[in-house]
Specification:
10 helices
Length: 254
């Protein structure tokens, strides 16, 4: 899917995004769908789903997170800053309402944005967001997962298929992200109650990255939250695309 890349400069970082522009033919054609990718990738991971949305009359906005794709590297990669970049982009685009979909790190950015601006987010989809610790008394669990065959193949061939995404990724971000996931983040947990958008949380199977106990707490904290499991690993929209589409399109009103 070819869309022109636009870059917008904020105070501390330059963010790149693609925008399909105004659409028509759907009840929510004036509500863009913002698609936020995970760590190590870029917005092109959403091309197939974005094309489907556009065929159904939706405007689609696809940013590259700071340190990814066509966006600039940054001095800081706090989770809140990823979410703030999404909000600043929406403000720059002068949109009053969005449907927000985020995968993994993009799920954290999206959930944070929905906490800060509940008036902005009409529908929220969070796909396989690893959930941070809730308190200092909680232990960091040993990893329960090994990469699935699909994930191993994707990692092995990603340099050939998407060389720019792999080469553009700021690897200094990895250390920052791991440190943040290992620290308690009670503010994020408390903020979940501020989300007013109907929320769909997509969880992979045993090889996913979502702790089921923490997910129960999230489902209780978010006022209107549905959890849907899938029999795959961390990247549902890639490895189980048809199932992903069947779950998300009706949730968005299609």
């Amino acid at each position: 899917m070819e869309l022109t890349v636009t870059r917008v400069e904020f105070d501390d970082v330059l963010i790149a995004y693609r925008d399909s522009g105004a659409a028509a033919g759907h009840a929510h054609s004036d509500t863009p769908v913002v698609l936020v990718h995970g760590m190590g990738g870029d917005g092109h991971t959403w091309d197939r789903f974005a094309a489907q949305l556009m065929r159904r009359g939706r405007r689609v906005v696809i940013p590259d997170l700071r340190g990814h794709g066509h966006s600039a590297h940054a001095d800081s990669y706090l989770f809140e800053e990823f979410g703030a970049d999404i909000l600043r982009l929406c403000e720059r685009l002068d949109v009053e309402s969005v449907d927000l979909i985020g995968h993994s790190l993009g799920g954290f950015a999206s959930s944070w944005a929905a906490m800060q601006r509940p008036d902005l987010v009409r529908r929220l989809v969070i796909e396989e967001q690893p959930l941070p610790l809730r308190s200092g008394d909680e232990q960091v669990p040993l990893t329960r997962r090994l990469p699935s065959v699909a994930e191993l193949w994707h990692a092995t061939t990603s340099l050939l298929r998407h060389p720019r995404a792999v080469l553009a990724f700021d690897r200094s971000m990895t250390t920052s992200a791991l440190e943040q996931f290992r620290k308690p983040h009670p503010e994020w947990w408390e903020g979940l109650r501020a989300i007013t958008a109907p929320t769909l949380f997509l969880r992979g199977g045993p090889t996913g990255m979502v702790d089921p106990d923490k997910l129960d707490h999230l489902r209780t904290a978010v006022p209107d939250c549905t959890v849907q499991p899938f029999a795959c690993g961390h990247s549902i929209h890639r490895d189980r695309y048809q199932a992903f589409e069947s779950a998300v399109l009706p949730f968005l009103g299609h």
